[in-house]
């Protein structure tokens, strides 16, 4: 019984695409599913339009299928959706232009952190520890002598 529940929960994303949206041509439907899996729902957080039940996701799924039936290539369909909703709808944004900075930022920040850490360690190791002044040394000696005399 538990496995039936697990299977139903696992299949929930498949319920987002309504039967009236499915294309008759299996090849076009497969292309539509592949494109939809890479497009983010503008309303939901990190959910593809293929998985989302939001109304705007349904509209986007229909738009993708209409463009495919009209003869557009996959790239043309994605470009049309991006032109309408912006690059936010791409679940995996292109690594070019301003997005290149976003892709490179984690590595650049890690390198900067390592560099700053190495510099701090080098400076600390290179700086000699200041010794005691003669007055401090004499006072320390007196304290140590007093401690030995008491013992």
Automatic annotation (TrEMBL):
One Pfam match: CcmH
Gene3D superfamilies named among the record's database cross-references: Cytochrome C biogenesis protein (1.10.8.640)
Gene Ontology molecular-function annotations: metal ion binding
InterPro entries according to UniProt: C-type_cytochrome_biogenesis, CcmH/CycL/Ccl2/NrfF_N, CcmH/CycL/NrfF/Ccl2_sf
Position of the signal peptide: 1-16
Domain CcmH/CycL/Ccl2/NrfF N-terminal, first and last residues per copy: 5-144
Top-rank lineage group of the source organism: Bacteria
Keywords assigned: Cytochrome c-type biogenesis, Heme, Iron, Membrane, Metal-binding, Signal, Transmembrane, Transmembrane helix
GO BP: any one term: cytochrome complex assembly
Transmembrane segments: 100-121
GO cellular component: plasma membrane
Function recorded in the entry: Possible subunit of a heme lyase.
UniProt record similarity statement: Belongs to the CcmH/CycL/Ccl2/NrfF family.
Protein's name according to its UniProt entry: Cytochrome c-type biogenesis protein
Organism per entry: Wenxinia saemankumensis
Lineage: Bacteria, Pseudomonadati, Pseudomonadota, Alphaproteobacteria, Rhodobacterales
């Amino acid at each position: 019984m538990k496995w039936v529940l697990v299977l139903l929960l696992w299949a929930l994303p498949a319920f987002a695409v309504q039967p009236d949206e499915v294309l008759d041509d299996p090849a076009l439907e497969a292309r539509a599913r592949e494109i939809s899996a890479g497009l983010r729902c503008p309303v939901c957080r990190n959910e593809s339009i293929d998985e989302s039940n939001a109304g705007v996701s349904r509209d986007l799924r229909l738009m993708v299928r209409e463009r495919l039936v009209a003869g557009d290539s996959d790239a043309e369909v994605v470009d049309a959706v991006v032109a309408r909703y912006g690059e936010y709808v791409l679940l995996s944004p292109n690594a070019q232009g301003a997005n290149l900075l976003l892709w490179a930022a984690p590595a650049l920040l890690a390198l900067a952190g390592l560099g700053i850490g190495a510099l701090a360690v080098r400076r600390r190791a290179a700086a000699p520890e200041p010794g005691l002044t003669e007055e401090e040394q004499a006072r320390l000696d007196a304290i140590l002598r007093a401690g030995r005399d008491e013992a």
